[in-house]
């Protein structure tokens, strides 16, 4: 274990905070970029993030905090992005430092709205980062349980096994088990799609469907996810591994998931706009639905659940009628 | 749809009551055997089962209720057993009527303790019922949600497609979707094994593991279930279909599951005896664990979760230590 790996985390939300917490279990110093200077000042003074995971104690002496993204990119070799996908291009537009020679990890679980790409592909195509220098950090993992130091399992995906292993070493601890895989495309799509299925679970709950239906929905969702990912990146993978099925379940069954909450409001009759306003948070599943729908149209995957969510969110279809139709397509 | 199919249900519990409710949506008369004569009198007078699913209205005029098992077997062609597996042989020992020429459906989801067989195999070996006349009714389905008429999906397994279809017709309604399969062995083992995994989920919860771990446990459980069932009955099946994965999830994520409650008490430090005493109900998973462990030893399947539950329930191992070991075998 090399305590001197030069890793920086980008983002100030709960998942970014959880990743920082995991890293400082192992590393001497962790770089941490966030926009909000008041938050930085608070962390420096009080050893915790005032906005997210307040209970997670973070030794500020070992944090290299900055609101200057160029400082952070220049100084660190491995960059972990944990910014909501909707803000990613805005943040990256500030860059003057080159990303070449950097290793980029996505912990975003969303699709970049401007390009419709998953984050790894976005860095690959827009910044010419070779795919071998791109990785994914995925769950199943609620940030809140990392804060509580409850045993959690992460999957690190990278085509370069050595890079994956180093990141695994930096993250693992007595409460974090890490495994590695080379399926960067599949794990990242799984992390994106599961948010759509969490929206679907929320809509179903909002409409009054019960636990029996939820289990059927999840059983169909994992089969749909398998079909979808096979179309975008065919390789041998076990869709029931934790990075795919586990991640779907931890989100689809969570009553705290933003995506599920968003769906729940839609099911209860809120318009998309009013649900978004009410939540004042970004439900990644909302953007993911549009991109995933477009991709499945291009690739020709059979995705009745994504279709139903898309029709409700983007085509103004009635949730009740749309789900009634959906129930006849599930088994 | 033949309204005159001669179907009888055996058992007075919540799942038996739910099946009766589904059947009288379609059939003119449903036979219903249960031991308790007071309960029978109450149902005749009040149109509901006083002990289980009280809210489910059951038109007593269309029920042929009796506490005489021989009367019921003689009069009906298709017999659905929904008695806890621990009581099955006791009930069957009362039989003077022959079961030959009958079609037997198991809705038991347990292993017969005296023979260590799943219910279909028990009827096949002990009563010479040909496998083609044996079927399985399986979920994912909480009886409580049937009572509430919330959309639920059943799977009917029978090697004889015609028998499966007739049973599907008798059970389906505006709130029940039914599909059929010929995998009687696999669906019945899935229904048995999921109770063990629900015990495991309960133990984990009782020990303080969180939702992140639960999703990893379920992700490993479905892979373990696939390996186990493949060893006992190799055929082409999609383990992510509702009858397998859906059934696992509806039980493993249910806080009302008896098996999960039983496991939870074990995790919290109750002895097996005191947990059983406290519950005053049979947790099918308890018996299932012993039989499944024996079968996997014979067949050589890798089943770390079943092993851990077995070691705790039958070998007096400390749940905390046993689960600590288990966490290193999961991924």
TrEMBL record, chains A, B:
Its EC number is 1.1.1.94. Keywords: Cytoplasm, Lipid biosynthesis, Lipid metabolism, NAD, NADP, Nucleotide-binding, Oxidoreductase, Phospholipid biosynthesis, Phospholipid metabolism. It holds the Pfam family NAD_Gly3P_dh_C. The active site is at residue 194. One of its GO terms (molecular function) is glycerol-3-phosphate dehydrogenase (NAD+) activity. This is Glycerol-3-phosphate dehydrogenase [NAD(P)+]. PROSITE patterns: NAD_G3PDH. It comes from the Bacteria. Residues 6-163 form the Glycerol-3-phosphate dehydrogenase NAD-dependent N-terminal domain. It catalyses: sn-glycerol 3-phosphate + NAD(+) = dihydroxyacetone phosphate + NADH + H(+); sn-glycerol 3-phosphate + NADP(+) = dihydroxyacetone phosphate + NADPH + H(+). The keyword Nucleotide-binding applies. One of its GO terms (biological process) is glycerophospholipid metabolic process. Residues 183-321 form the Glycerol-3-phosphate dehydrogenase NAD-dependent C-terminal domain. NAD(+) binds at residues 87, 143, 258. Sn-glycerol 3-phosphate binds at residues 109, 139, 194, 247, 257-259. GO terms for cellular component: cytosol. The keyword Nucleotide-binding applies. It comes from Polaribacter vadi. NADPH binds at residues 14-15, 35, 52, 109, 143, 258, 282, 284. Pathway: Membrane lipid metabolism; glycerophospholipid metabolism. Belongs to the NAD-dependent glycerol-3-phosphate dehydrogenase family. Catalyzes the reduction of the glycolytic intermediate dihydroxyacetone phosphate (DHAP) to sn-glycerol 3-phosphate (G3P), the key precursor for phospholipid synthesis. InterPro entries: 6-PGluconate_DH-like_C_sf, 6PGD_dom2, G3P_DH_NAD-dep, G3P_DH_NAD-dep_C, G3P_DH_NAD-dep_N, NAD(P)-bd_dom_sf.
